Amino acid sequence: MLAVPLLLASCGSLPRIVPDMDSQPAKVIQIKGGRGILTPEQSQAALDKLKNSKQDNQDNLILEKHLAVEEAVTGSPLVAGNKVTLLIDGPATYASMFAAIREARDHINMETYIFENDDTGKQFSDMLIERQKHGVQVNLMYDSVGTLSTPREFFQPLIDAGVQVLEFNPVNPAQARKGWEVNQRDHRKLLIVDGKTAFVGGINISSVYSSGSFRKRKPKQDDDANKVPWRDTQVRMDGPVVAEFQKLFIDTWEKQHGPQLAAKNYYPKIANQGNDIVRGIGSSPDDPYSVIYATLISAIQHAESKVYLTNAYFIPDPQLRDALKDAVKRGVDVRLVLPSKSDSTLVLNASRSFYTELLEGGIKIYERQDALLHSKTAIIDGVWSTIGSTNLDWRSFIYNQEINAVILGPQFSAQMQAMFDRDIAASKEITLEAWKDRPISDRMKEFGAGLWARWL
Fold this sequence. Notes:
Blueprint: E1 6-7, E2 16-17, E3 31-33, E4 36-37, H1 40-50, H2 57-73, E5 78-88, H3 89-102, E6 107-112, H4 119-133, E7 137-143, H5 156-160, E8 164-168, E9 185-186, E10 190-193, E11 197-201, E12 230-231, E13 233-238, H6 242-255, E14 276-283, H7 291-301, E15 306-311, H8 318-329, E16 333-339, H9 345-352, H10 355-360, E17 364-368, E18 372-373, E19 376-380, E20 384-388, H11 394-399, E21 400-408, H12 410-425, E22 427-430, H13 432-435, H14 440-450
Helix pairs in contact: 2-7, 9-14
């Protein structure tokens, strides 16, 4: 039996994940569809659709193992019958979001960390107001810290139009709706339309995403966060799994004591839209541990061929570092695509403070050039993929509300692989020899930032 026991610690720490890789799972993997739990025969048929006929039996066994690991770690169900669309960068993401918003007929639920008072923010605001005026109930939740630079007057036209607007954990303690927990932030990026379509990923509402990140341009010495395009990833999901993301939104809304949600059809019956099997995972500092963290660590610990991570704020805790190095010892190809520039110099230097240990452990590191990398994705063994808001740092795993989609199957992973290859091609590999030759001034900055890694 394959099991993944968790040795739980108190809130504010990370769980210890202990894998048991004795054998293949004996029990039937349960999958949920649009009308409830599938029968064993229906579940097997859904799994068979995931399997690539060109793969050998060993590859399909790897897929089944990752499906079992997913089920062992988290309580959220695997959901079949979805159509998943990979969206690369802001222009593609916003175009798909705008199309979905225009088609909304019942409700729109939106949760975001940043909602800027800029051209993009105004475009979203205008569209949400237009839908509200046409009888579509819009519920908007934004983070207080993430929108510190956005005047509260910006949200007034939305409120005046009837949009339900909720500020997550207000910075002002006088406005706090529960204990003042300013360090707990809502870092999720979630858009749900009519309970049938959901968007999840790393993209906030901001004009920094107005251009793509694969333009052919030579890097300039003075490039910074305000002068380069932002590289990010989002995923659109149409199908029954949207109900799982809807539950996460409504749960957060209620825990924040938001106004009573209007009576709308938040959980419509949805026919199958495709063959993708998806799990929606949310984490919160109120939980005993981060399910997203446990899921990722377990997937890495069970990896057999490759672990490819792309992440914006990479400050790995000891267990994650050990999991990556142990994977290399098992013969797994472990690669990281990380930023070469960041909107937080302190985080960038803290991330680099771990490079020597990781490079000596056989992990390949690439820094994305010509763009500010903000993406948070992973591909494991060509069958397990995740896209979401979660950074690989202490803040995401302990203090933030985060949300991820896990997509299982070789077809979607092939798309993820193609995207990863494009990022590799636009990156510079950091070799151990070159890294050891870096200036002493860089080492000092990394050392100083690394001392604060736990609190960044």
